[in-house]
Specification:
About 35% of the residues lie in helices and about 15% in strands. It has about 240 residues and is α/β, with parallel strands linked by helices. The protein has a 7-stranded parallel beta sheet. A two-stranded parallel ribbon has the order 1-9. Strand 3, helix 4 and strand 4 form a beta-alpha-beta unit. It is globular and about 50 Å long. The structure holds pyridoxal-5'-phosphate. Pyridoxal-5'-phosphate binds next to loops.
Length: about 240
């Protein structure tokens, strides 16, 4: 139950349902780590109570959109699970590098500019810094282009000082099981990853978990389905 004294309405959140949904998603992706996407205040349900409950259920990998959310989340989780990994989807801006490091927030690098920023920080600190490389395979919102990946392959020094924890991409139409674009994105993801240093891979959002297991890779990243939203269009809701 989450209540705010100055609000005109009260939203009751069934954290047992959140826990049951997380357990189902974990069970559906047996070979992969099941992370949790809790951006936008856990899709409006309350970041701290939701994340604490997911941590209690065994979740150790959390994705948020912005650094400020990562700091709130780190403070909420600290005593319970100091070892949890917190990833920031928007990546670093100039001037935020020290906070990323101090709060143990792992930046998702979406452009050559962000790679340069984080790699420069690592070299300045003379300590390897954890990072995720995000490749655009068709969502066309964020991520490295094929041309950017060519540049990285041609000049491995660009990744100097980075400890690449994950190579990821985001599916655009996975709620449609029969959409051929899903396989196209998966093939492009494999081709792009092959040009980069080996790293664990992550492609599936909620809907991707319900496609064939080839979409699961090493980590799945459900968001909406944890909160009960149906992952597949035109099918009954398993959440
Ligand atoms: C929001 C988001 C997710 C979670 O997507 P859902 O469809 O809510 O499961 C996963 N990965 C990225 C990159 C996202 O931005």
């Amino acid at each position: 139950m989450v209540a705010a004294s100055h609000a005109c309405a009260i939203l009751s959140v069934d954290l047992d349902a959140v826990a049951a949904n997380y357990a189902l998603l974990d069970e559906k992706s047996p070979g992969a780590i099941c992370a949790a996407v809790v951006k936008a205040d856990a899709y409006g349900l309350g970041l701290a109570p939701v994340a604490r409950r997911l941590a209690h259920e065994g979740c150790r990998h959390f994705f948020v959109a912005q650094l400020a959310e990562a700091i709130t989340l780190r403070e909420s989780l600290e005593s319970a699970v100091p070892d949890s990994a917190i990833y920031v989807l928007n990546g670093p801006d100039q001037g935020t590098e020290a906070d990323f490091e101090n709060y143990g927030a792992i930046p998702i690098l979406n452009s050559l500019r962000q790679i340069d920023l984080w790699s420069s920080h690592a070299r300045k600190r003379a300590v390897a810094q954890p990072a995720v490389l995000h490749m655009d395979t068709g969502m066309s919102r964020l991520g490295l282009t094929s041309g950017d990946v060519d540049d990285l392959a041609a000049d491995p020094e660009l990744l100097c000082g980075l400890d690449i924890r994950l190579a990821m991409s985001h599916l655009a139409s996975a709620e449609q099981r029969g959409n051929p674009f899903n396989q196209q994105q998966r093939r492009l993801f494999d081709n792009l990853r092959a040009q980069l240093p080996a790293a664990p891979a992550s492609l599936a959002n909620s809907s991707g978990i319900f496609l064939v297991p080839a979409f699961h890779y090493d980590m799945v990243r459900p968001g909406a389905s944890i909160f009960g939203i149906s992952p597949m269009s035109d099918e009954s809701n398993p959440m």
